[in-house]
């Protein structure tokens, strides 16, 4: 039996081969258009993950029968943080890079914000490690995942965003070999009020994944 990670890496390699062979480039990522903002067009299936602020469900977009994921953010529980939620939804909808999770659309349903996005069937690196690789991934797999994650960060930084919560739980894999960085819940924009900000000072992220300069009070940090 082929292991889930091996399957992802094999798919990743053949995807790259296909890309090289295809002339003209074009986007190979599953670009989807025209998702509606009517909750009746979506069927929520099982929960595939949850975090501090949200539950993520596998879902079907009924008009096209497409399999997607919906992140349901509980607006009642995030009262003091509506700006963060707005920023996350806005950042995700403007994203246009194969290694960064994009939202197709987002809308309010009762007291929740639904963010519609591609479904990443293998889940996060964290979950994959916990389920099948307790000693960590093999080096070639780490190289592939790291390279794609760095491309995502490079894209975000060139567009003035800093993610601020890069960790294995936010690196998502699917079984076609796509590797995407997700969860913009604490991301920040370095371009504010018409100016590039030199640095940020807020203490956000996941403590054991934080760089020392973020923990250091007063020093500030930027995309590096
Ligand atoms: N598009 C997706 N496809 C499949 N699974 C996903 C997808 N997005 C998220 N997940 C799963 O759901 C989990 C939680 O998602 P996410 O990190 O976005 O929620 P959160 O509440 O913002 O988390 P955190 O506590 O890290 O801030 C992820 O670790 C992952 O396992």
Automatic annotation (TrEMBL):
**What keywords would UniProt list here?**
ATP-binding, Nucleotide-binding
PROSITE patterns, per the entry: PROTEIN_KINASE_ATP (PS00107), PROTEIN_KINASE_DOM (PS50011)
Q: Which SMART domains match?
A: S_TKc
Which residues bind ATP per the record? 71
InterPro entries referenced in this protein's UniProt entry, alphabetically: Kinase-like_dom_sf, Prot_kinase_dom, Protein_kinase_ATP_BS, STRAD_A/B-like
Q: Which residues form the Protein kinase domain?
A: 42-224
Name the Gene3D superfamilies on file. Phosphorylase Kinase, domain 1, Transferase(Phosphotransferase) domain 1
UniProt-listed Pfam families: Pkinase
**Database matches in SUPFAM superfamilies:** Protein kinase-like (PK-like)
Q: Which residues form a coiled coil?
A: none
Would you say which domain of life the source belongs to?
Eukaryota
GO MF annotations in UniProt:
ATP binding; protein kinase activity; protein serine/threonine kinase activator activity
Name the family.
Answer: Belongs to the protein kinase superfamily. STE Ser/Thr protein kinase family. STE20 subfamily.
Name used for this protein in its record: Protein kinase domain-containing protein
